[in-house]
Structures are given as C-alpha cells and as structure tokens.
Amino acid sequence: MENNPLVSAAEALLFASGEAVAAEKIAEVLEIDISRATEVITGLQLEYETRQSGIRIVCMAGNYQMVTQAEHAGHIRRLLEIRRNTPLSPAALEVLAVVAYNQPVTKAFVEQVRGVDCAWVISSLYEKRLLEERGRLELPGRPLLYGTTVDFLRCFGLSSLEELPALPDTSGDTPDELQVSGE
C-alpha cells in the first residue's frame, strides 16, 4: 500500500468509524478537498481489490465504509459467536418495498398500501436500522415520515436507491387481470 500519511489517515478514519462516512466528512477531517478525498479512497479500494484483501471499501449513496468480504462471513460469525439473524418476514419485506419506492412516507401511507396495521413491522425495521425518521408531515397530528437507511442499501447490496429494480407497469391492468391464476 502506498506509504502516504494521507492514505493511512483515510484508512484509519474508515476503520475506526465502523459506519459509513461521507466523503465530505473525510475531506473536512483530513483538511483536503472532496475530490482529493475521493481519489484517496478510490486508491484504497483498488489496493484492497488488487491484493485480494479480506476487507474492502464500499460506496453507498456517497458514503464510504470498510466492510469484510462476504466469503469470510462464516469465519467471522464463528469468531464472534454471532447467532444467525432471523430473516426478514414477508410483511417486513413488503413494508421496506413500499418505503423504498415511495419515501419519505408516513405509517398511514404504508398501511393504506398494504391494507393492514404496520406499526409493529415499522418499529422492528426501525430497530434494525433499516428505516429511519425523516421528519414530520405538515398535517394535523404531524405524522412521522420514514425512509430507508444506508444499512438498507448495504443489506440489499445497493449503492443507491437508483439501483432498485423498476416496478412493473400495471397502469392498463384491470382488477381481474391482477388476480393470481387459479383463483
């Protein structure tokens, strides 16, 4: 790796943070411009790739984070004796989809789309840091607005929301055409 105090400092920042860090923040801390910070981080990414390191640097919505290579997950899990997280329920995946494609949204909007109460699911996704509060709607009661997080992007292997698959066009479909065959 390049013997450069700036590169070393950027690497230390990403490692110590443990979370995604904006290029702007790295530039500010290192007292350099954003383009230079991005150049340094890109160099680090390439270095890790070239030497097939057990870690890599990912970019998610303009934020950079040091992560481990996926193929080492089993070893890490055993080392830390982490129990496997339970997978997301179909209801949680539905709520995430509604929020991801329509954010920011209120709980009432999600419930209207799904047709059922979503308070527990939203609370669970918030605790898992897949959803975050994005402010309040300027209506009576000032309901909370929700959106997806950087952790959501990381969990689904996305660098930005633009990478979400396109929704199918159902504008010309009638309710009968939307029924599952065999019903």
| Topology, number of strands | 5
Radius of gyration: 21 Å
As for the CATH topology of the largest domain, it is: Arc Repressor Mutant, subunit A
Strand order of the largest sheet: 1-3-2
What is the ordering of alpha helices and beta strands? HEHHEEHHHHEEH
- In percent terms, what proportion of residues is strand? 5-15%
**Contiguous runs where pLDDT drops below 50 for at least 5 residues:** 177-183
What separation lies between the terminal Cα atoms? 62 Å
For the largest beta-sheet, the strand count, sense and barrel status come to:
3 strands, antiparallel
Helix content: 40-55%
The CATH homologous superfamily of the largest domain is named Winged helix-like DNA-binding domain superfamily/Winged helix DNA-binding domain
Account of the 3D structure:
- The chain is of the alpha+beta class.
- The protein folds into two domains: 68 residues, Orthogonal Bundle (Arc Repressor Mutant, subunit A), CATH 1.10.10.10; 77 residues, Arc Repressor Mutant, subunit A, CATH 1.10.10.
- The protein has eight helices and five strands; from the N terminus they run αβααββααααββα.
- Helix 1 crosses helix 3 and helix 2 packs across helix 3.
- The radius of gyration is 21 Å and the shape is globular.
- The C terminus is likely disordered.
